# Entry
Amino acid sequence: MTQLPRFPFETDAALEPPAEWADYQNRCPVAKVRLASGDEATLVTRYEDVKSVLADPRFTRPTAADNAARVADTESGGLFNSEMSTVLPQHGEGHLRWRRMIGKWFTAKRMNALRPAIEAMAEQLVDDMVAKGSPADLKAALGFPLPVWVICDLLGVPDADRDRFAHWSDALLSMTRYTQAEMDLAQAEFAGYMATHITAKRAEPGDDLLSALIAETGPDGAPMSDPALIATGMGLLIAGHETTANMIVKMTAMLLADRRHWERLLAEPALVRTAVEETLRLDANAGFGMARYLTEDIEIAGTTLPSGTTAVCSMAAANRDERVFTAASELDLGRSPNPHLAFGAGAHACLGQPLARTELQVTLEVLLRRLPSLELAVPVAELRKVEGLAVGGLRELPVRWRL
# Structure
């Protein structure tokens, strides 16, 4: 029996993609792989195929109710296979209504209104980092606290609890790092915390997303259930800080790895927006990707996948597809158009992408203005990846500067 390759693929280089991505795109765009759980899934790597599967309204995220492949090496299979994943509607009118309710808080108008506060917080964090002196860990000083503060402010949650949120998020996003007991405890503690917070918001509403959701009623006049409110709060807190915090750090590392990119942005600050999009596209350390549970047969790249298949869509591999992006492996700060899939596609595309873009742009603008001499404090080869989680990142980002 042929042993299936283990996915995600391993690579020692923190900012470079595994060789398997290009190999699979060219040789085997629809491939069987083995997940950390030991379960079999089908990996999709070409841009058009990934976009097609993600945008197909017939297929949705795997839930505990499906007989889907488990992601993590624990009994439950991790967050994506947990009971929590079944609390929120995953398709149909219920899912559309839920997205509309949340999406109102992530409009361009709201992001523009938030921008000055995000910039002020970034400035304050840079002040604190500079006061402590060079070198510093940009992740601990800026990359992690900024998105936590932003999402906590949006939810009306005290960001003083950010270390607890980080632990709970890591445990719930574990593929190989935490045991089932540790994941269960984290979920119970996180849900209990959010339930207490929602009770307090119900008694004293504020100008925040959760207070608004508590007050809103559906077409039947009924409010959102407590389990759905808890799951929404937990999901937004995890997504709102984990991925953006990691991306701030990876973006900065990518731009400093070859300092000619940083110098170009100093000379042409108008490129910040396209530079952010390009680092999102070129992210080689994006994590697991998105899984879809196929509820009927589908043909992808000439291969028929039967109903019951768990398809893993690697957006990061798709974003380096030479069929779509010229010089796909190169960082082009002015690349436009840039139809990358970093935020997914279709009905489950990331709701918070306007916020993530705003945070990334503001962070880069502040760093360029305040610390033009910023550089890596260690060789690129010494940057260390986060291991064992469904999201990709760097453990730390040592930087230095001259004032």
Notes: The longest helix spans residues 226-257.
